[in-house]
Structure formats: structure tokens, C-alpha cells
From TrEMBL, chain A:
GO terms for biological process: amino acid transport. This is Amino acid ABC transporter membrane protein, PAAT family. It is a multi-pass membrane protein. It comes from Seinonella peptonophila. It comes from the Bacteria.
From TrEMBL, chain B:
This is Amino acid ABC transporter ATP-binding protein, PAAT family. CDD domains: ABC_HisP_GlnQ (cd03262). Residues 2-246 form the ABC transporter domain. It is a peripheral membrane protein. It comes from Seinonella peptonophila. SUPFAM superfamilies: P-loop containing nucleoside triphosphate hydrolases. PANTHER family: AMINO ACID IMPORT ATP-BINDING PROTEIN, GLUTAMATE_ASPARTATE IMPORT ATP-BINDING PROTEIN GLTL. It comes from the Bacteria.
Length: 224, 251
């Protein structure tokens, strides 16, 4: 077998892939923001004493963790459009779908890290006259965030990889760009290897950024 | 200052505080002693409602804490009201519970600042005065993990004092410390007592109890079995179980 990477330089293939990469990065970034917001809400809500709130959060978690992302995406994009006439653009559906799916996993990370903070911290805050939420915001969350970072890095990397599924609902991201090129020239190996490399670089950057952030936050002297 | 009447506390089916009656006057130092598991910590934690109670009443400066009666029904008081009472009751824990992500100074100023009691400048000034009082002015910018156990506990005391409490609760403040660090913490507590602070102290430091306590409360199996001056408790206790307990700890 002979590999011919010069194919990248023909027919505007490389610019097309780079354009796809940029869409992937944007989609992933917005999905990540949604994922963090949902994760925080559902994670904290899941610990609520209010049965309704914790019930809603538990259901959310069970649903989005218990069904395949691909199915959620096509439901959101094709399903809503056809049965409820809610016509989301592919990108909006994609970002929402990815964010909601990943949010379920982030909520578990949020909940776990909050619960891992010693009970005595909340008691100390309360005994000083601060409210539950003041203590949560000033004492518990700052410590919990440090513990969230390593599992969050994993989740964000998974999110980036999962974004390739958006190709199915016609979002012109990296995978779809690759598919369309391959359909023309049948250079499967060259093109998909290039794509893999792109994903790898993005994820490498993410994990490096988070590691730097972790080190920054360690200045506060919190290890445990 | 604190009035506890017919307090009962259960953990599930486990009856851990039984018909507790105790009145603590302003300026008084009360030391609570008794075997492990007798309910000392739980009683102390009830005094600022870190533990909910099942029956009875606890009054702090003539205000009920935790439970209030409304239209003939007993129910939990609103959080806001509870927080206000808690400001008056400082608490020092066995394992310090300092905030590890904040410096010593920030530990002390967090609550006054968060609750809008003072501005940043005043808060830092108060923190400095308190650190002077506990002998740690040079550690203001240190993080808790950089401190010894004794230093941590002194910061925890300063942190509680920053809220200008009217009463201080101490739950075995020296039990987690290496023996050579116990003295520095007890000294801070003695100074505090001399200034007239109302204090409730759970401790196994009998020397401290003898020297500082106005009254000693002896607990056993969820009950107060004896309350008296330290002289009487340590020399002529009326209860056999008090004698047995003292023999064990003083050996
Ligand atoms: N959070 C809790 N849940 C269940 N039981 C508890 C809890 N805290 C304390 N207890 C029980 O209550 C009793 C009194 O405990 P505690 O007040 O800690 O005693 P002491 O401080 O005198 O050693 C013990 O039997 C203990 O096992
Ligand atoms: Mg105890």
C-alpha cells in the first residue's frame, strides 16, 4: 500500500478539513459551556432536600446517561422537526444535544466532588453564621472545583470525541468534512488519519490546559 | 446565657441525650467531662443547632434556637433567624475545620466579610488583633497546611472570635494535638476565660477543668449525672460513676 498525503494539498482538501476542525472546536466549546451549567445545576439539585428538585435531577441523569448520544441527537434534530415542527438548525441541535448529554456526566462529577469535601467544612461555615449557600459558594465549591478538574478533563476529552457524531445530523464538522472528501477520492487512510491527528491535538491541548489550571489552583495549598 | 430544658436527642432509635437540663450564666466557664460516647459532643452541637433536637428547648440569651413555636405547633425556625443566633455562638472543633483554600487571615475574615459586618480594611484589622491575641501575627498569610496543629487550633479560635460571639463552645479542642502543642491552645483558652468570655468546653484536660472551670458537668450514657464546682467533683464527687471515670482518666 502506498500512502499519498499530497492528497491533502489537492482540491482544497486541507482548508476543508481545517474548516471542519474549527467547527468541531466551536461546537465542542459551546457544548462544554452548556454541559458545565447543566452539570452544576443537576449536580447540586440532585443533593437537594426538596424531593421534586432531586427527583427531576435524578430523572435527567438517568435519561441522558441511559440512552445513546446518537439516538438523542437524531431525536433532537429529526424527531423534533418532524413531529413537533420544532426546527432547530443542525448546529443548535448538535450543541444542545452534546451539552445535555455531557451535562449528565458532569453532574455526577460535581456531586461527587462536593460530597467528598469534609462535612466539617459546612459545619464550620454554618457555625460562623454563614448560610448554607454562602458556605457552599465560599467554602465548599472552591475546594470541590479543584477536585473536579481531573475527571472534568476526561469528560471534556470524551465530549470532543463524541462531537464526531454530529456528522450524522449534517453539522459540517471535522468528521463530516472528512467523509465528504473520502467520498470523492477514496483516500480513506490518509484522510481519516489526518482527522485522528487533529482530534488528538485538540485533546492534548485540553488536557494540558487543565493540568496548568490544576497547578495554578494548587497555589492555594489544597491537595486532599 | 444558655438555658437547656428537658432536651432529648435521638439518632434514629438511639437515645443519645436524655432529659438534659443545664443553665449556663454569662461569663461562666463550664467544662463537660465524661466517658467517650456519653453525648458530650452532641450536647455541644445542639447548642448551636448543628444537631436538630427531638424535644425540649435550648435558649440562647432568652431566644430559642432551632425550634420555635408557631400557632401552637413546634417547627424549625427560618434559616435567617438561625444564622443570626449562630453568630453569637462561636464553635471550635476537635479537628479545627479550617478552610484549607484560604490563608489564615482570610479564614478569619471570611464570615465577617460575607455577612457584611465590616469592610475589608476593618476585617483585616480585627484579624490582626485576634492573631496578636493568639500569638500568630507572623502567620497571617500562611495556609492552614503550613501550620502545626496547635497553630491551627489557635487560628480556629481567632476565626470564631472574629464574629464577636457572646459564648464559645469548644469540642475537645486539644484532643487532635501532639502533647507538646496542647499547652499553647489551653493558654489561649485561659486568657479568654480571664477576659470574661462565656465558655462551654468539652475536654479530657482535667488540669484545665480544675484551674479554669466555674462548674464541671459530668455526663454518662446521655445523662448529666453530676454538676458541681471542680473542687467537689475532683475531691468528693457524689456519684460512683464520676469516681470511676476520674480514676480512669487521672491514672
Ligand atoms: N451522626 C451520628 N449518627 C448516629 N449516631 C451518632 C452520631 N453522632 C454521635 N452518635 C452517637 O451518639 C452517642 C454520643 O456521641 P457523642 O456525642 O459523640 O459522644 P462523646 O462526644 O461524649 O464521645 C454515641 O453513641 C455515638 O455513637
Ligand atoms: Mg466527642
Amino acid at each position: 500500500m502506498e500512502l499519498d498525503f499530497s492528497i491533502l494539498l489537492q482540491d482544497g482538501n486541507l482548508p476543508l478539513l481545517l474548516k471542519g476542525l474549527w467547527v468541531t472546536i466551536r461546537m465542542t466549546f459551546f457544548a462544554l459551556c452548556i454541559s458545565c451549567m447543566i452539570g452544576l445545576l443537576v449536580g447540586i439539585g440532585g443533593m437537594s432536600k426538596n424531593k421534586l428538585i432531586s427527583g427531576i435531577c435524578a430523572t435527567y441523569l438517568a435519561w441522558f446517561r441511559g440512552t445513546p448520544l446518537l439516538v438523542q441527537l437524531v431525536l433532537l434534530y429529526y424527531g423534533l422537526a418532524i413531529s413537533l415542527q420544532i426546527d432547530l438548525t443542525a448546529s443548535v441541535a448538535g450543541v444542545l444535544g452534546l451539552g445535555m448529554y455531557s451535562g449528565a456526566y458532569v453532574s455526577e462529577i460535581v456531586r461527587g466532588s462536593i460530597q467528598s469535601i469534609d462535612q466539617g467544612q459546612m459545619e464550620a461555615g454554618r457555625s460562623l453564621g454563614m448560610s448554607h449557600w454562602q458556605t457552599m459558594g465560599k467554602v465548599i465549591l472552591p475546594q470541590a472545583v479543584r477536585r473536579m478538574l481531573p475527571p472534568l478533563a476526561n469528560e471534556f476529552i470524551a465530549l470532543t470525541k463524541n462531537s464526531s457524531l454530529l456528522s450524522v445530523i449534517t453539522v459540517p464538522e471535522l468528521m463530516r468534512a472528512g467523509n465528504s472528501i473520502v467520498a470523492d477520492n477514496f483516500k480513506y487512510f490518509e484522510i481519516y488519519l489526518t482527522i485522528a491527528l487533529f482530534y488528538f491535538v485538540v485533546n492534548f491541548v485540553i488536557s494540558t490546559l487543565i493540568r496548568i489550571l490544576e497547578r495554578k489552583l494548587h497555589v492555594g495549598g489544597v491537595r486532599t | 446565657m444558655i438555658q437547656i430544658t428537658e432536651l432529648n436527642k435521638y439518632f434514629g432509635a438511639h437515645h443519645v441525650l436524655k432529659e438534659i437540663n443545664l443553665t449556663i450564666d454569662s461569663g461562666e466557664v463550664v467544662v463537660i467531662i465524661g466517658p467517650s460516647g456519653s453525648g458530650k459532643s452532641t450536647l455541644l452541637r445542639c447548642m448551636n443547632y448543628l444537631e436538630p433536637i427531638q424535644s425540649g428547648q435550648i435558649m440562647i440569651e432568652n431566644q430559642p434556637i432551632g425550634m420555635i413555636e408557631q400557632q401552637g405547633k413546634i417547627k424549625e425556625m427560618p434559616q435567617k433567624q438561625l444564622n443570626l443566633i449562630r453568630e453569637k455562638v462561636g464553635m471550635v472543633f476537635q479537628n479545627f475545620n479550617l478552610f484549607p483554600h484560604l490563608t489564615v487571615e482570610e479564614n478569619i475574615t471570611l464570615s465577617p466579610l460575607t455577612l457584611g459586618k465590616v469592610n475589608k480594611q476593618e476585617a483585616n484589622k480585627v484579624a490582626n488583633e485576634l492573631l496578636l491575641k493568639v500569638g500568630l501575627t507572623d502567620r497571617a498569610k500562611a495556609y492552614p497546611e503550613q501550620l502545626s496543629g496547635g497553630q491551627k487550633q489557635r487560628v480556629a479560635i481567632a476565626r470564631a472570635l472574629a464574629m464577636r460571639p457572646h459564648v464559645m463552645l469548644f469540642d475537645e479542642p486539644t484532643s487532635a494535638l501532639d502533647p507538646e502543642l496542647v499547652g499553647e491552645v489551653l493558654q489561649v483558652m485561659k486568657d479568654l476565660a480571664k477576659e470574661g468570655m462565656t465558655m462551654v468546653v468539652v475536654t479530657h484536660e482535667m488540669g484545665f477543668a480544675r484551674e479554669v472551670a466555674d462548674r464541671v458537668v459530668v455526663m454518662d450514657q446521655g445523662k448529666i449525672i453530676e454538676i458541681d464546682s471542680p473542687d467537689i467533683i475532683f475531691q468528693h464527687p457524689s456519684q460512683k460513676r464520676t469516681k470511676e471515670f476520674l480514676n480512669k482518666v487521672l491514672k
